[in-house]
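Sequence only, no structure available. Ideas?
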Amino acid sequence: MRWLVLLLSLAMPAVSWLSQQGVFGPTNGALSDRYPTLIVAAGYAFAIWGLIFLWDVAFGIWQAFAKNVRAASLDRIRPLAAAGFALTAVWMPVFSMELFLLALLIIWAALACLLACAIILSAARADTPGLTVWAWAPLSLHAGWLSLAAFLNTAQVIVAYRLLSTETMLRWTLALFAGAAVLLLLANQRMRGNLPFAAAALWALAAVYVKQANWTVAGSGTAAVVAAGLAIVLAAQTLWLRLRPAARPVHG
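Reply:
I predicted one. C-alpha cells follow.
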C-alpha cells in the first residue's frame, strides 16, 4: 500500500499538468468562467494546488521510505490517502470533459477520504515523530482546500444544469455557504483547531471575497460579505481551540 500511495501522490501533479495543457478538454479556469457562481474564488487562489501537490508527494515519499515509522494510525490512513489522491487525480480529466455530475461525486468522495485522514492523524500525531510535518499537515491542507472546492463544484453543477435559478443565485448560494460553515466549523472543532486545514479554508474564503467584492453579478456583494464573515468566525474558532487547554481525562 505504501508504494501505491507514493505513485498516486505523483499522479496528481502529472494529471494536473496535462489538464492545464488542455489534453482532456477545457481547463478548469475556462469552465469556471463559463459557469460563473457567487461562491467562485479569484484565480490566484488555485495556486495552492502547487503547495498541496508538493507536500502530498513529500508525504508519499516519507511514508514509503521512513523505516523507523511504525504507527498504527499511518497504516490506517494509507488506504484513505490512496483513495483521496486517486479521486483528486481522476476529478481533473472528468471535470474537463464536462461530466459534471460524476465530477461532483468524485470531489465529495475525495473530501471524505482526506478529511478522515486529517481527523485520524489529529488524534494520533503526538505519539509519532514526523507525523505532524509529513502526514498530518499535508493531508489536512488538502482536506481544507477540498472543503471549499466541493461547494464551489456543487455551485457550478447547479449553474451548468440550471438546477436552480441562474439569474438570482444568492438564495441558494447562501445555503451552500451555510453548509460550508457547518462542515468547516464541526471538522475544525473535532480536530481542536487544525491549523493547515483552517489555513487552506481561509485562503479559499479570502479569494472568494476578493472575487465577489470586485464582481458585478447580482448578489456578489452579499456573497463577499458572507465569505469574509465565515473566514473571521473560522479564524476565531481556530485561535480559541488552539489556546484553550485540552480537557484532562477524569479518573475514577
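The longest helix spans residues 131-160.
Hope that gets you unstuck.
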